[in-house]
Design goal:
The chain has five helices and eleven strands, in the order E-E-E-H-E-E-H-E-H-E-H-E-E-H-E-E.
Length: 220
């Protein structure tokens, strides 16, 4: 199981007829966290006319909410939400703050402006894939080490640590759905000399800052 989300905050800006649209993409874990971020942005841009937003959180099913914050219905929140959906991400909150430039943009202009601002922020965002997996310890003797390392490398398995004593202990991350297959391959490759122990479950992802492990969270 896996899902796409954003890694850290990102922003973008779009201008149309002197109206400024400042967008920010923020990773969140709940609607409550999204509303806390909204209050922070309202305080930062206290003199702006509108703070329109949308968020998508959770999985199977997702939770979605949006707000036009005084703009004509359907011209702000919905376009922002459509951009989030288009990137196929969840646990994401997007706010677009508008400074009015003195010229009415019409419904079509507003839709284009809010869409463009949200897209600009996403263009600057780092999107990662979080994978649900298990942390395992693989214990073997030195005879089977080379075969295990080769097998894990072929699978692209994330290695966390290796301890060398009278035996070898390899700590690794494996996608939850692959655990049984990996264990079977290890046993066959080493003639039963490798023992795999499940340590815990977690989410993990390759990020711009390297491999990150996240606490276990609900699968929904």
């Amino acid at each position: 199981m896996e899902y796409r989300t954003v890694y850290g905050r990102a922003d973008g800006e779009f201008t149309m007829k002197k109206s400024r649209f400042i967008a920010e993409v923020i990773p969140v874990s709940s609607g409550e966290e999204a509303m806390e971020c909204l209050e922070e942005i309202r305080k930062r841009y206290w003199d702006a006319r509108h703070h329109c937003w949308a968020y998508v959180t959770g999985r199977n099913p997702v939770s979605e909410r949006l707000s036009d914050d005084g703009e004509p219905a359907g011209t702000a929140g919905k376009p922002i939400l459509e951009v989030i959906r288009g990137y196929g991400v969840t646990d994401v909150f997007v706010v677009v703050t508008r400074y009015f430039g003195g010229t009415l943009l019409g419904t079509g202009g507003l839709v284009r402006a809010y869409t463009s601002a949200a897209r600009e922020a996403f263009e600057n965002a780092k999107i990662i894939t979080k994978i649900y997996g298990v942390r395992v310890k693989i214990k073997t003797d030195y005879t089977g080490l080379g075969k295990i390392q080769h097998l894990l490398a072929q699978r692209g398995t994330a290695l966390l640590d290796t301890l060398y004593t009278d035996s070898v202990e390899i700590y690794a991350l494996i996608q939850s759905g692959e655990k049984s297959a990996v264990e079977k391959e290890l046993m066959e490759a080493t003639g039963g000399r490798a023992v795999m122990e499940k340590l815990d479950e977690c989410w993990f992802a390759d990020t711009p800052d390297g491999l990150k492990i996240y606490p276990k969270e609900p699968l929904v």
